[in-house]
Predict the 3D structure of the following.
Amino acid sequence: MTMVFVHIKTALEQLIKNKGRSVLTMLGIIIGIGSVIFILTVGEVAKNFLIGQISQFGTNVVEVSPQSAIGLGEDSDATTLTDDKVDQIEHSSLLPEITAISAGKTLIKDLQFENTTKQISIYADRPDIFPVNNQKALRGRIFNQSDFQSGARVLVIGQNLEKDLFEGDSAVGKKVKVGGVLFQIIGVVEGFDQFGGGFGPDMVFAPLTTIRRLFIDSSESNTISFMLVQFESGTNVDSFTSRLNFELRRVNGYNQTEDFPFYVASREQFLSIFDTVLLGVQAFISAVAGISLFVGGIGIMNIMLVTVKERTKEIGLRKAIGAKNESILTQFLVESIVLTTVGGIIGIAMGLSLTLLSVVGINYFQPDWGVAFIIVPQAIFIACGVSVTVGMIFGLYPAFKASKLHPIEALRYE
Amino acid sequence: MATTVKAEPLIKVQHLKKTYWNGSVAIPAVKGVNLSINEGEFVALMGPSGSGKSTLMNLLAFLDAPTSGSYSFAGVNIDEFDERYLAELRNATIGFVFQQFYLLPRTSALDNVRLPLRYAGVSRKEQISRATSVLERVGLEHRLSHYSNELSGGQQQRVSIARALVNDPKVLFCDEPTGNLDSKTADEIMDILKGLHKEGRTIIMVTHEEDIARSAKRTIHMKDGEII
C-alpha cells in the first residue's frame, strides 16, 4: 500500500515537471470530462428551473390547442375550438373533475402610456385564467365574471411591466391605450413568465369579450386558440387526459381512431417530454465526449510509451535492485491513472465553472427567473470513475511493456 | 575422512555458459567458466571489452540466466532462473554499484537509498533508520535530503554505494565503479570499498583499469569468454 502512495507521489512529480506536456496530454480528457459535467449539470439546472415554473402554475392542468395553432396542421372548422365546444367540454358528464377552464386567444398590440409605447402580448381569456395559472392579484383586483360579461375595458398586468411603465408608482387605476383604445389597469399580478417566457413582449390580461369586440374579425368572433383545463388535485392524470381526448374528438366530430389534429398534454407530460428530449441531448453530447475521451486516452497511451522509453534506465535500475514485474506495472499504471484523474478533476472544475458562469449570466439578464446553480453528485462520481477507467485502460499497454523490460538491456539502453 | 573443515565457497560456478543469439547466429559470451569465490574476498574481474566479464558479472549477480552450467550460491544450488525469483534474490543478497550511478533524479539521497528496502517490504521507520546509517557509513550524513542531481559525482557514487549496502548484501558487485570519476575522487571511492572489504564484505569488481584492480586481493582475467 505504501508503495502505491510512493507511486502517486512520483507520478505527481513527473506531471509537474512536465507541466506543458502533461496539460496537452490531458486536454482530451479535460474536454471530454468537462463536457459531460457541463451537459449533465446544465440539464439538471434547466430541469429544476422548469419544474419550479410548472409547479408555480399548478401541475393539475392539461393544455389543449389545435395543432394549426402551434403550426403543425391545417386550419379548418373541424380543427378550430369555439366557445360552444369549450362549453360542451366544461359540462361533460365524463369530465366531472374539471374545476376551471381557461379558453382564449393571444394577440400582439402596442400599449401606450404618456410618451412610452411598448409592444405587449394580450392574453384575452375568461376570468378562469387566474385560478388555472395559480395567479392572485398583488395590487388591485383581477377581472371578474361581470367584467367579462359586460366587455369592460380593463387590464391586469404583470409586476415587471408595472415597474417598466410606472417606475415605482402603482399601476392600479392608471389609464393606458391598447391598439389606440383606452383601457384601465385594475390589477397587478406577480411577474408573469409564461413557460420559457421573458423573451418577447410583456403579457397582459384582458377579458376575451372585450378584445373580441374591439380587435377581432367577426368571422372569428366565437373562436379561441387554446384551452387550459384545470382538474381537481388527486385526479388520475392519464385517465383524465384520455377522457378529455375522447370528448374533444366527439365535440370536434372525429371518430376515436382517426388522426386527431389537437395537441393535448398535461403539464406533467410536458415535463416528461422535456425529460426525454434532455436525455437525448445528454446522450448525444456524452457520445461526442466519449470520442474525446477515447482520443484523449490514446494521447495518454502515447505519452506513457514515451515516458517508459525515457525512463528505461530507471526501470532497469529498479529491476536490478529487486523490483518485480508487478511493481513496475503498478508504478506506470498508477502514473497513467494519476494523469487522467488530474485531467478529470480539471475537467470537472471546468464543467462546473462553465455551468456556474451560464447560471450567473442567465440570472444577470433574467433576474426574475431565479435559476439556481446545483451540483449533481452522480455526474461527478461518473466523471471520476470514467477518468480512472480511461487511465487504467490506456495505461495498461505501456505499463505492461515497462514491466517486461529485461534489467540488463534496460540499464544499457541509450 | 575430511580432517580439515574447508568452508563452502560463497559462489561456485561450473561450466557456466551464456550464449546470445543474433537471429540464427550463436554468439558465445561466456564459454564454460569454472570459478569459486569465498566469503570476504575482494575480487577484480578484468579483461578487454567483449571479453565476457560483464556477462559473467550479470550471471553471478542474478541479472541474467545462464544458458547452461551450475551455480551454487551460499551453498544453495540455483537451478531455477524464474524472473520473480531472481528479483527476490537480487533484492535480498546483492548490492550493485554502477559506473553511471543510476540514481533517481529529483529524489533525495535518503529516498534513493531506501529504494531496495521498499521493494523488500521493510517498514518505513526501518527504511529510514537503515538508510541513514549506511549514508553515515559513506560520510554523507549531512546530505540526506539533498537531491541526487545536486550532488557531485563522488557524492553520487557514495549514495549508490550506500544504496548497495542498505539491504546488507552477501556480495557487492561493482561495475567500473570509478569509470566516471576523476582520479582523486576515484581514490576516495576505492578507499571506501577497501574499508568495506576490511569489514568482511565480499566484493566483486569489474574493471579494465590495472591500478583500480590492484586494490583487490585477487584478480581474474578474462578473454574471449574464458578465464585465463
